[in-house]
Amino acid sequence: MFKRRARADREWREAQRAGQAMLAMHTEWPEPPVPVSAPAPATPTDAAVVPDFLPPDFRAPSRLDVSGLMMRWLPPLVIDGEVRQCPECGTYRDWIIFNMRDGAVWLRCQAGHHVQEPRLDSAWYNRNSGPVDSYHPNLEDGLRHLGH
Q1: What are phi and psi of 116, to 5 degrees?
Q2: Which of 46, 106, 112, 147 is least enclosed, having the fewest CB within 10 Å?
Q3: Distance in angstroms (rounded) separating the CA atoms of residues 125 and 121
Q4: Contact 69/96 with Cβ under 8 angstroms?
Q5: How far apart are CA 19 and CA 9, in angstroms?
């Protein structure tokens, strides 16, 4: 056991010495010459500058442009080992889960009851949701798209 540790210490010290020798070797090298830069060509002032970005019609909305995100959750929703049920009608599957801009997560059952779920957050939503496949101008269009 002691021989193995002494061997490991010796190998570590040798590696340290080799690293120090490499660093010392690099300090002895001459500095590379600084290239002389050519003067920048003058840009014509009358030419219109074309932005290198998509026009607004082709851009996807940012997170701040939408009120929230929604996804459908068909299996029973299990949170902290407990199956989540609607407090009003008792259903436990086929939820619409909303992730609002402020980070709150809301649940909507098939019957249309809404309840906030404080044990879920935006990080949970992002882990469990897929990519955004469509944007809707209002809540009713989004619910219709998801089958509610």
Answers
A1: -80, 140
A2: 46
A3: 6
A4: no
A5: 15
pLDDT digits (tens, 9 = 90+) for 85-135: 999 998 999 998 988 888 889 999 989 899 999 999 989 998 998 888 788
pLDDT (tens digit per residue) in 55-95: 877 777 776 677 788 898 999 999 999 999 999 998 999 99
109, 86 contact by CB (below 8 A): yes
pTM of the model: 0.57
Give the list of residues 6+ apart from residue 106 with CB closer than 8 angstroms, or none. 97, 98, 100, 114, 115, 116, 117
| Four-point Cα dihedral 12, 17, 19, 22, nearest 10 | -160
